[in-house]
Write a structure and sequence with these properties.
heterodimer, A: 14% strand, B: 171 residues, Beta Polymerase, domain 2, 5 helices, 7 strands, elongated, NADH dehydrogenase (ubiquinone) activity (chain B), NADH_UbQ_OxRdtase_30kDa_su (chain B), NADH:ubiquinone oxidoreductase 30kDa subunit domain-containing protein (chain B), NADH_quin_OxRdtase_su_C/D-like (chain B)
Chain lengths: 359, 171
């Protein structure tokens, strides 16, 4: 006999505002239907009522965990239309802000995995290690989430010797803790029992559905924007793309942890080789008529902005697509065939961002 | 290497497109290539989608906007890091779905159908994506209270709706 059960914001299994209609046979999920739209806010329309500088603030607030990537990708589009060349120093500083966000974002998602499999000591340990990144954000940018690092033609912050030393010291503190935690996530029998072979996304489905970020890389698909279409200083700071072949929750977990390590390396490299120069242009630029498309690699995957301008102070059209938007449909492949108790774990493994997706 | 791939893509596009078109390509300081294509016969988007599929590419997103009295779609398609932007003007407010060719276009087509009221031909699952059924299509651009725009308005309303649906199924 089949049973239908709803999982959503009113159900203990899931905190996110999304509604899953699940058909069960025994304990196994046969079919899943997803209904979204609970938090649609019409931000895309709002963006066309604001001028180019106001939109810096607005895009930063689309979502908190990718909050650096939104204004980052947006300013790149504005700069492309206006023909502005950003200084090398500003480009390096953009990378620093972005990689700091990636470490903190990945570690948050990974601690959520520990929470969902009921391994609470591991969750606390991960969150405590992540606090180091939060401290860095608060000390350098003044905020724990919205860093407001980017502006049109450069960045709003600079790093002096003391700040660089502070970041390096804190990263030295973080790395051994990360190594210790990684070992548990990779090898502990509780974690493996709940993640290995769970929520499998085969490579061909990953390609067919156009998934991005760690979800794609966990299935062996490399579409990391930092390498495929480099921007800012990523062409100079060569990124090593992390790929896993398993396609299951475990593979995605491994991708994120290995990326945390890679991001630590990138931050170190960027701040120790910081080029000299201005961080922002003196003059406020005029934004002429034109159109541009820019992309960046957010913690969850590729983020793309399309901007069309007509010479006025506000965009004529601004459209963006976040990684979760593409990874969503992959859940229809990942969830069926698994146990009901695994649904929340699988859902978490795409690192869902609903406020981004629905805008 | 990217340059060779670009040449191949352009040759294949020129070969398959039946109507008139404008084509240009650009390269930024980092060597990233973008191709801009404007189609004058909207049916050609199916041929373009097939080229993308043959090269193992994907649909990244489709941007819709209103220009004077008609809609414009800009398809953003990717082949191994090369971005192909395809502009199509819709004078009859109708477009053929490319989802049967590129699965990755599924959501974005449903979204422009919902937000701009563009008619979609041949989509395998043209259901609403974000907004409640009670709201008319083509809503983007009209003022609407947040509580009404959101599917559930409040958790309790959503819960009541699901419960009533569930009971309907049981009877």
């Amino acid at each position: 006999m089949s049973t239908k059960i709803p999982i959503g914001p009113f159900h203990i299994g899931l905190e996110e505002p999304i509604y899953f209609k699940i058909d069960l046979e025994g304990e196994t999920v046969k079919n899943v239907d997803m209904i979204n739209g609970f938090v649609h806010r019409g931000i895309e329309y709002l963006a066309m009522q604001k001028n180019f500088f106001q939109n810096l603030i607005l895009t930063e607030r689309v979502c908190s965990l990718c909050s650096n990537n939104h204004p980052f990708t947006y300013v790149m589009a504005v700069e492309k239309i206006a023909g502005i060349e950003v200084s090398r120093r500003a480009n390096y500083l953009r990378v620093v802000a972005d990689e700091v966000k990636r470490i903190a974002s990945h570690m948050f998602n990974l601690s959520m995995l520990a929470h969902l499999i009921g391994f609470h000591s591991l969750m606390t340990q991960t969150m405590e290690a992540r606090e180091i990144m939060q401290d860095i954000k608060e000390s350098i940018w003044g905020n724990r989430m919205d860093m407001s690092a980017n502006t049109i033609s450069g960045v709003k912050y600079d790093l002096d010797e003391g700040q660089i030393e502070y970041i390096l010291k804190r990263l030295d503190e973080l790395e051994p803790q990360v190594d210790e935690i990684i070992d548990i996530y990779f090898n502990h029998k509780i974690v493996k029992a709940r993640t290995v072979g769970v929520g499998v996304l085969p490579k061909e489905d990953a390609l067919r559905l156009g998934v991005t970020g760690p979800t794609a890389r966990g299935s062996g698909v490399n579409n990391d924007v930092r390498v495929k279409a480099p921007y800012a200083a990523y062409d100079e700071l060569k990124v090593n793309v992390i790929l896993e072949e398993g396609g299951d929750v475990h593979a995605r977990t491994k991708v994120r942890w290995r990326e945390v390590k890679e991001s630590i390396r990138l931050v170190r490299e960027a701040i120790t080789n910081l080029p000299e120069g201005p961080v922002v242009l003196d003059k406020r630029p005029h934004i002429p008529a034109g159109e541009a498309v820019t992309r960046s690699e957010a913690p969850r995957g590729e983020l793309i902005y399309y901007l069309k301008t007509n010479g006025a102070q506000k965009p004529e059209r601004m459209r963006w697509r976040v990684p979760t938007y593409m990874n969503w449909e992959a859940l229809r492949v990942m969830i069926p065939g698994n146990k009901l108790s695994d649904v929340a774990v699988i859902f978490n493994s795409i690192d869902p961002c609903i406020s981004c997706t629905e805008r | 290497m990217k340059e060779t791939l670009k040449q191949k893509i352009i040759a294949e596009l020129k070969n398959r497109i039946t109507g008139d078109f404008d084509l240009r390509d650009e390269k930024d300081a980092k060597g990233n290539i973008q191709i801009w294509l404007k189609l004058f016969n909207r049916k050609d988007i199916l041929h373009v989608a097939q080229v993308i599929k043959d090269f193992g590419g994907r649909c990244v997103i489709i941007s819709a906007y209103k220009k004077d009295d008609h809609h414009v779609l800009v398809y953003h398609l990717d082949i191994d890091g090369i971005l192909i932007n395809v502009e199509v003007e819709l004078f009859d407010n109708t477009v053929d779905s490319i989802t049967p060719i590129l699965d990755s276009a599924n959501w974005t087509e449903r979204e422009f159908k919902e937000m701009f009221g563009i008619k979609l031909v041949g989509h395998p699952n043209p259901k609403r994506l974000f907004l409640d059924e009670s709201i008319a299509e083509g809503i983007l651009g009209e003022y609407m209270p947040l509580s009404q725009a959101m599917n559930g308005a409040a958790t309790c309303c959503m819960w009541e709706k699901i419960e009533s649906e569930r009971h309907k199924n049981e009877h």
